[in-house]
Amino acid sequence: QQVNIISTAVPFIGIAPDSRAGAMGNAGVATSPDVNSQHWNPAKFAFIDSNMGASMSYTPWLRKLVNDINMYYLTGFMRLDEMQTISASLRYFTLGEIIYTQDGIVKTPVKPNEFALDVAYSRLLSEKFSGAVAFRYIRSDLNAMQEDMQPGNSFAADLAFYYRTPVKLMGESSELAAGINVSNIGNKISYNEVDKLFIPTNLRLGLALDSELDSYNRVVFTLDLNKLMVPTPRRSTDESGDDYRMEYSNMSVTKAMFQSFSDAPGGMKEELQEITYSLGAEYWYANQFALRAGYFHEHELKGNRKHFTAGVGIQFNMMTLDASYIIPVVADNPLANTIRFSLGIDLDQLSKR
User: Fold this and answer.
1) In Å, what is the CA distance from 37 to each residue of 54, 167, 170, 203, 305?
2) pTM
């Protein structure tokens, strides 16, 4: 029972990029399709109503620590026919300006940055079921100004499925949905061609219930579960008696994915501690105004990220505006007061205009 956090390279890939899911406790694998489905579950695009759309999001990150770390997210989709949809996204993460010193001498300021570019293909497999594959290129340039350090590169893929079916709830029309997304299945990343680090391969499962209260009011409840599919560090003792953490740098990606469900030194109890929970709720009035709330939970021995979330959304004929806000449970949380903004555009209606 001690802190044993799983660390990976390029953790920016796991940051919720859009305001709708960000306001619902970072839950989005099973919610209704929207233009930002690329990150959560690209299989949802097969059910999306519009033929073409795009979105941009802006997230000022860790504002309690510094004022120049930001994430930008662009995404879009286009329907090929009634069965097939293609989509793409670009995520850019800047760590701001860092002053590098060596032997007390100030060197040229550096601006580390990372980005991920991906494309996805989704297809209806039946009237209620869809699947998708996504391919991603990741580049991490930390600009450490060290001669033996270079930008890291990785290629990864996602495999996702989405299922939804109409149900009756207290006599009203509702929809039950489920989703799964195994994301970032890819090669390790290295900054010096020697040490290789796992990227955040992740398993996301979710359920969502979308219910109409009447012709004007609608509510959505959703739950997401997340589990990193990378090795859990183990503590051991070397010949000198010093305690250190084993990182399993030589393990293959495939072996690590399957072993990640049973390799925690604390057994099944610790494996369950590695699961994060996201609970979200959404209320729509006349399909034009939305109120959202949620809760994200991570065990205190695995990172201790615990926070409530809230947000609003406004939908016009061709445009959607969303904003979200993080309310931390733990004192002095660096995520406190994090605000996300998203702007979505229905390019299908815009072209018709």
Assistant:
1) 11, 23, 29, 16, 24
2) 0.92
